Amino acid sequence: MKSNHNSQPDAVPAGSSRRDFLKASAAIASVFVAPGVMLYQTSIARSPDQAVDSTVRWGMLIDTNAMTEADVDKCVSACQREHGWKSTGKPTDTQWIRKLDLLDLETGYKKSLPMMCQHCEDPPCVDVCPTGASFKRADGIVLVDKHTCIGCRYCMLACPYKARSFIHENLTDQLAVAPRGKGTVESCTLCVHRIDRDGVNAVPACAEAVNSANRKPMVFGDLNDPNSEISRRLAKLGAKKLRADLGLNPGIRYQGL
Amino acid sequence: MVDQTRYSELKVNSSRYWLILGVLAILAGAGLAAAHYMDVEGHHVSGMNNQIVWGMPHVFAIFLIIASSGALNIASLSSVFGKLIYEPLARLSAVLSIALLVGGLAILLLDLGRPDRLIVAITYYNFKSIFAWNIILYSGFIVVVAAYLWLMMERRMHAYSKPAGIVALIWRLVLTTGTGSIFGFLVAREAYDTALLAPMFIVMSFAFGLAVFILLLMASFKLDKRVLGDCHLQRLRNLLGIFTAAIFYFVLLFHITKLYGTQNHGVEYFLLVEGGIYTALFWLFQIGAGNLLPLLLIYLPALKQSRVSLVLACCLVIVGAFAQLYVIIIGGQAYPLNIFPGYEVSSSFYDGVIGEYMPSIWELMLGLGGFATSIIIVFMIMRILPVTPEILPDDQASGITS
After folding, report:
1. CB–CB of B321/B61 below 8 Å?
2. pTM for this predicted structure
3. pLDDT tens track for B98-147
4. Testing the interface with A: which of B38, B50, B134 to mutate, by most A Cβ within 10 A?
5. CA-CA 20 to 30 A from A166: which of A91, B62, B164, B250?
6. CA distance B391 to B91
């Protein structure tokens, strides 16, 4: 016991050095490993300097059978909160995403679905824009360059989906993620700010609002990756492209129509 | 053959000239003020909205642009097709053409959401856009016609006026094709989406431009107490009749083509039967007042010598032009997009319903301001340059009826 007792003073320094060793190891590990983790995360996203490329094509699959009217309303509200737009029902109000109610007059069949920019592979809005302000990114997202849009509204005439809005009034309280400007045209950006921040882990605000652990009526992902969830679901169940007759190959697909 | 016509500046007395110019300047100023107001407040003060994105300013602008192309007809007939009877009128035709285009472009520019970005519009080009092509075609046309006018006016260079006339003729045919194609290329809109709009716009330009030209000719000659023989007027009258009949033919063909395809029955039923203001404008003002009535006024034997009937016919052709452009531009947008064929569609964004539009006073002021600007330019050039023949008697016309 004594010896044990005597050994105590020895034991304390020994235990202390073990702790020091563990601390030091943890510090060294964090110095070397953390950047690796950070690098991994930034490789999922994208550095602000890095250009997007066409290896990815972002798209969204909307299962209209799995969506209730309340879900569609949630999509719209989430988009409004995310981008800071609102609609009071005036014909001059902006709507980036809207709830469309369909009624089959022959059968009485009803359906509601979210409608927004379809992010076409061959977008007519981009074709007709005189200044090139309306453009498609290499990863398939169709956007409006706020600095070169002259507000001619020709893209709105050309869009087959009525997806674009013209900003008719002065704006206040804009959000940093969605710069907007009176006299220019705007539409759904597919939450491009989230995509640039989170990469393959991104979820647009509308999808985030309706998806849960149990159900996923809106699947966002890479249409070019055959192993992505969106591609696998498309391969298994198929989906409809709106106005497929126009051959625009939209990135938004609908199931259950 | 050297042009023997004597031209001179308008000699109308000063007070009358300045009075006319003053009234026009007030209209042009009001147009500018309206554009400024829409720019500061935003387009919500106009009648336009997210359903009807192009409104009354575009009706005025496109009228002036295609009338500009047609106004050059007289010069083309003289320089390119050798119709020497029109040679004395060729200069005035070119002046009117430039002036109408400037007025039309001013309206288009001032209606932009960001008119301050003119420099962007002329430095960033998307060459797949027919709109971008039109920016080049319109500005190039002003240069081409100005050069053509100079070659016609400078006797030493007169020989070159024919090649310049050919260039201007081809240019304006391409230009009006481009203007018609602004709508013709819109594949998603059922009221458009046809190449027929391009030749239809060309024929419309011939009639609208000529109607404005005849009115300008008669008004300025009367104002300046110059002699205007019946021979010239009869020729112009016949031309107007042919062009008006040709518009009628194209409109008929347009609607029959659309009606043949079942998928377009909805939009045709809307425009021709149940479209309210658009249907009324189509039948009463475009077809009735704009086509059939002018044809009667032009060709009825009892009225054939009447100058009043000619003036009336020109005015009615212009009324019909506005009705036709209103139906094409605004009626075409009012009909909803058919995204889900077979379904009745509704939303808070006015899907599935006829778009509502009522032109605001600001849009009318802008449109009239552009028109007034065109007439100001014409009168100013006529006052300072010798573009108007001093006399157009019948005996001068009789010998050169080729």
Report:
1. no
2. 0.90
3. 999 999 999 999 999 999 999 999 899 999 999 999 999 999 999 999 99
4. B50
5. B62
6. 14
